[in-house]
Design brief:
single chain; alpha/beta; 7 helices; globular
Length: 178
């Protein structure tokens, strides 16, 4: 969700309504459309610049299609299903960052399943595309997510709970959020 860039570049990068006008969520925010090359190029440029500055991990937040607001008005004009668009975009980002020593990770703020929902996210997309999955434990059922991950997925190193206090963490890796 990048209201400024999406609204000023609606045709090339913004998530639009079927009419072509920019789509707004329930908070009056605009979103980038990960299926559009303009959005991909914009995010890739930010990621490359961050990697060049020496960042060792890039954490993508709200890496999904919106699931709140009047989503029935979204016009998926690219003809690409949301899950395929997110998968292709993650692959493109990974390729463009391959010459850098940087991890590509994602924040998960909603429950996911094996099959894609309106957000476009699936467990396999997250596990296959990102080095780490940071999980908002206030909104995601950590047990259900863990059960869906592949048996060989290194949950201790790659699944990072985002907790409200250090004492709430019961794994080796965690992030404290306020």
């Amino acid at each position: 969700a990048d209201s400024s860039y999406a609204s000023s570049n609606a045709a090339a990068a913004g998530l639009c309504r079927s009419t072509g006008a920019i789509w707004y969520d329930g908070s009056s925010s605009c979103w980038l459309d990960p299926a559009k090359k303009g959005a991909q190029d914009y995010i890739a440029a930010i990621c490359k610049e961050s990697a060049e500055l020496g960042f060792k991990e890039l954490l993508l937040d709200y890496y999904s299609y919106p699931t709140t607001g009047n989503t029935s008005q979204i016009g998926y004009g690219t003809g690409v299903e949301p899950s395929a668009a997110l998968t292709d975009f993650a692959k493109t980002l990974r390729e463009q960052l391959s010459s850098y020593d940087v991890k590509l990770s994602v924040v998960l703020r909603q429950n996911v399943t094996a099959a894609a929902d309106a957000s476009g996210l699936t467990v396999s997309l997250l596990a296959d595309s990102f080095d780490r999955i940071y999980v908002d434990t206030g909104t995601v059922d950590m047990g259900a997510l863990t059960a869906l991950l592949p048996a060989d997925y290194d949950k201790d190193a790659r699944l990072v709970p985002m907790v409200r206090s250090a004492s709430a963490a019961n794994t080796a890796s965690y992030m404290v959020i306020q």
